[in-house]
Amino acid sequence: MSTSRPDLRADCSRCAGLCCVVPAFVQSADFGLDKPSGVACPNLAAPGAGDFRCSIHAELPGRGFRGCTVYDCFGAGQRVVQDHFGGRDWVSSTKERAEMFATFEVVERLHELLWYLEDVLERPAAAPLRSELEGLRDAVDRAAAEPAGVDVLRYQARADVLLGEASALVRRPVGADLRGHDLAGADLRDRDLVAASLRGAVLIGADLRDADLGDADLLGADVRAADLRGADLSQVLFLTRLQVAAMRTDVTTLLPAWAAR
């Protein structure tokens, strides 16, 4: 399997509700109950009958499950079910259940890396690193195809360095360095954020209305409830669907072509 950006989009119709079973979550503002890892969410429709749809999908925020609306497996679910387990599900294949769950956890993390690598490979400014980026992308994809015993941390460490180098090329001349800064609730409307590094920044509830983020690096930034109405995110680096879903946008927000509003 050769990945591409479309391959890294979740297709729930070809999965088996793995995201509703494998992750653990704790009762909070984002989740309405405690759920251990490997235990099916009670909101799954009828997994025993092969129906892995969410029974409250249209009401998730109002029922206390806002966290589900900003989750993204980067297409790992269908790859695991279809490619690794031949379309079988965890209910009918109980002997493979633990292996399927473990495989999903690994492939999900590898697919997230692939998303970032594919993003920067689309940027002409990163051309000097193309060979290294393509080599790492192909290695990560091979690992996702044969995930048993894969050391994900090794790939993440290599990607962190390489993506940082690529980010600096794309953002040249680099803007403000706000990596890891706690900017929760901050008014950033007058801040120059073009080509800024916001990697790992906490932007919960921040006011970014009408901001031009240019080629800003948003890898790992927490943008829950950040107000980006009227903002330009069309060229932002390492933006994900879960970040788009978590922030506050409207029809005036400029998003990348891949981002479904």
Describe this structure in words.
This protein has 6 helices and 2 strands; from the N terminus they run ββαααααα. The chain is an all-alpha fold. The longest helix has 25 residues, at 97-121. Helix 2 (76-84) packs across helix 3. A two-stranded antiparallel ribbon has the order 1-2. The radius of gyration is 19 Å and the shape is globular. A hairpin with a 4-residue loop joins strand 1 and strand 2. It has helices spanning 66-69, 76-84, 97-121, 130-145, 152-170, 241-246, and strands spanning 44-46, 51-54. The chain folds into 2 domains: 6-170, no CATH class; 174-261, Pectate Lyase C-like, CATH 2.160.20.
Note the main attributes of this structure.
261 residues, mainly alpha, Pectate Lyase C-like, 2 domains, 6 helices, 30% helix
Walk me through the topology:
Blueprint: E1 44-46, E2 51-54, H1 66-69, H2 76-84, H3 97-121, H4 130-145, H5 152-170, H6 241-246
Antiparallel strand pairs: 1-2
At a glance:
By secondary structure, this protein is mainly α. It has helices at residues 66-69, 76-84, 97-121, 130-145, 152-170, 241-246; strands at residues 44-46, 51-54.
Name the assembly state: single chain
Number of domains: 2
Unreliable stretches (pLDDT < 50, length at least 5) are none
- The global form is globular
The SSE order reads EEHHHHHH
Rg value: 19 Å
Distance between the termini: 28 Å
| % residues in beta strands | under 5%
Helix content: 25-40%
Count the strands?
Answer: 2
Biggest sheet overview: 2 strands, antiparallel
Largest sheet strand order: 1-2
- Tally of helical segments: 6
What is the mean pLDDT?
95
Structural class: mainly alpha
